[in-house]
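tmp note - ABC transporter ATP-binding protein
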Amino acid sequence: MTVSSASKHYATRSGTVHALDRVSLQVREGEFLCILGPSGCGKSTLLWSMAGLHSLSNGEIRLGSDKIEKPHPEIAMIFQEANLLPWRNLENNIALPFELKRTRPDKARIAKLLQRVGLAGFEHKFPRELSGGMQQRASIVRSLAVNPSVLLMDEPFGALDAFTRDEMNLLIQEIWMETGKTIIFITHSIAEALFLADRIVVMSARPGRIQEIVDVDFPRPRPVSIQSTPEFIARVNDIKAMIDHRKA
Ligand SMILES: Nc1ncnc2c1ncn2[C@@H]1O[C@H](COP(=O)(O)OP(=O)(O)OP(=O)(O)O)[C@@H](O)[C@H]1O
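out:
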């Protein structure tokens, strides 16, 4: 995916908000890219534009030769909230993207994915009967069921408790290693970005710009315990200093 000089202004009652300023980025096929930055730096604006859910004021985003101006079948998005429909059971929630595309749900693929994320046997449960982590796993299945090549994740685990978040980070790492999908993942957490990413895009606050792109080369699979190693902590501090320095 290629982002070329993407800028976004929002017109509000109190004036124009300059949310993104000439952001250019080449996302490599199959990479795990994390976007890290303070609240309000335009991370969601950038991701939503990549999903074709927001239009840019200037610049363009492409997947291969396709210009992204509306949702694209190869690009799926996962939000902070699982956004399952409360009146549908899991199976019918996962079937929704197929219904929208007027195609038949790929039952074999869905069963495999449910098994993969530990939700086999829960097909007939309703969202209220599931924990937050389980709901988010279901939303991952819903996104992967249509087999997109790019998965956009907007702080998907931000609302979960620390243990569930660790579990979900391990799961998404495994899924990424197994499927080779391109994942673009927004987070506020330096540790989460370092745990997951091949590269971290550090953004600066308004107007949102790319401050720095950091390569992360810890070998995979990365265990949760890597986060307490001196090397990991040193990298967290490096990025923290980069962000603090920018504020000064
Ligand atoms: N629809 C909108 N109308 C007006 N201003 C908006 C709109 N959406 C976002 N903004 C503003 O644009 C800026 C960037 O917002 P955005 O949500 O992209 O940032 P973010 O980095 O994702 O923030 P957070 O981490 O808090 O979710 C913010 O100042 C926000 O208030």
